[in-house]
Known about the structure:
alpha+beta, 7-stranded mixed sheet, 4-stranded antiparallel sheet, 8 helices, 28% strand, globular
Amino acid sequence: MRFVVTVPASTANLGSGFDALGMALGLYDEVEVAVAEGLSVTVEGAGSGEVPLDESHLVVRAVRAAGYSGGLALKCHNVIPHARGLGSSAAAIVAGVAAGFTLTGRELDTDALQIAAEFEGHADNAAAALYGGVVVAWSEGERYRAVRMAADARVRPVVLVPSQESSTKTTRGLLPAEVPHADAAHAAGRAALAVHALTSDPSVLLAATEDRLHQNYREPAWPDTVRVINDLRKLGVPACVSGAGPTVIAFGDVPDEVDVHGFDVRRLDVDAAGVRVRPLD
C-alpha cells in the first residue's frame, strides 16, 4: 500500500477567537506513505535536519495514535514554515492521523479530530487542517468538536512570515490567568463577528479581528509582529497575529508605507478541502 497525504497550513484565533476559530490556508505539506519493514523517515524542506527521524517524529506518533502499529516508510515534503503560527504541527498530526486511518481501512470521522486535537490540547488548527474552510472548535468535557463553514469568496488572506520562530508554549506563558470582564465581553462579540465576516461579509473584518484577549500580552515575544499589525490596522487593513505567532495574517493589500522588512509576504487562497489522501499504486 502506497499513498500521498496532502494537508494544508492553517491560521488560528483570527483576532479574539482564541483556541476557537481557525481557517485552512493554501500552503501544503505532503507525506508519502508506504507499508514497509521496520520504520524509515525522511524529511525534505522545513524541519529537515532538525526533527527526529524515529518513532518520536510527530507524523509517526500520530499514525500510531490512529491505530496503525506496523512497518512504515515516510517521505515528508514540508513547505509550511515551522514555529511560525501557521499550523505546521497540526498539519503533521493530521497527516499522521489520516495515514493511520487509511492504513487501517477506516474513513476519517469525528474520532480523527479527537485524536489530532489531543496532541495539542485544542482543536482549532487540527480542525482546519482536517476539514478545510473556516472552523469553529470547542470542547465538551474531554471531547473535541468542530464545525466547518465555507469562507466567503472575497476573503483573500495575506501572510507576513518573519524569519523569527516562536514557541506556542512560551507565548502561552505570557498570558494572564484572568482578564477584565470588559475584555472578555469584547472578545466574545468580536469572535462572533469574525465568523460572520469570514463567511458572509468581509467588509467588517477590521472590527472583527480587533483583539484584547491575547495579542498585546504576547507583544514581548514578537514586537515587530505587533508593530506591523498596528501599522496595517491604522491604514484600514484587517490584520492580526496568526496562531501563536509570529506570522501576521492580513486581509487586503499591504500598503507600501508599512515597513515589512524581515517579513516574507505571501498571498494565499483559503483551502476548502482539508486533508486529502491519494493512492500511488
